[in-house]
Design a protein that fits this description.
CATH superfamily: START domain
Number of helices: 4
Number of domains: 1
Strand order of the largest sheet: 1-7-6-5-4-3-2
Helix content: 25-40%
Strand content: 25-35%
Number of strands: 7
InterPro entries: START-like_dom_sf
Radius of gyration: 15 Å
Distance between the termini: 32 Å
Organism: Kribbella deserti
Largest sheet: 7 strands, antiparallel
Protein name: SRPBCC domain-containing protein
Oligomer: single chain
Low-confidence stretches: none
CATH topology: Alpha-D-Glucose-1,6-Bisphosphate, Chain A, domain 4
Structural class: alpha+beta
Order of helices and strands: EHHEEEEEEHH
């Protein structure tokens, strides 16, 4: 059973293979500033928006065309008192075929990102942009809307607001 967390569910005409390939192409939808591997069990990568947000994440489970799970090992936010609220949480991408119409469903859940967390509102808004818009665009068009290497928080915020 999945614990409580922020969740986004989307359907696609693309195959489970195409959705899976996009999910593990984290630089294609989240940030080009990610360092490290993002596709195989045991890979670790770092996400960084200088001065604002830094995470170290391990790929903990991969079932091709069905599941990708990340474990957040370390996390800091400069904008909150509970800077490490993501530490120990799990990010899940579950891929399945719908029974009606044979479409591919992607269920994203940040397990442990709870509404009582100080970061919840901004993090939920950010995941809605990155998974609901950027990853969706990568899946459907081949081009996502990831952070560029030099982007600062103002540029990232403006990009998110432009699709809101």
């Amino acid at each position: 059973m999945i614990e409580q967390g922020a969740s986004i569910v989307q359907e696609f005409d693309q195959s489970a293979r195409e959705v899976f390939a996009a999910v593990v192409d984290v630089r294609g939808w989240w940030s080009k500033n990610i360092t490290g591997g993002t596709a195989m069990v045991g890979d670790e990568f770092e996400y960084d928006v200088p001065v604002v947000h830094h995470s170290r994440i391990r790929v903990s489970e991969v079932v091709p065309e069905r599941l990708v799970v990340w474990r957040v090992l370390e996390n800091t936010f400069s904008f909150e008192t509970g800077q490490d609220e993501w530490a120990g949480t799990e990010v899940r991408f579950e891929i399945s075929t719908t029974t009606s119409g044979g479409r591919t469903e992607l269920r994203f859940t940040h397990v442990g990102l709870l509404p009582e967390f100080e970061c919840y509102d901004i993090c939920h808004k950010s995941w809605t942009f990155y998974v609901g818009h950027s990853l969706r665009k990568l899946i459907t068009t081949g081009t996502g809307l990831p952070n560029e290497i030099a982007d600062d928080v103002e540029v990232i915020g403006a990009r998110m607001e432009s699709v809101a």
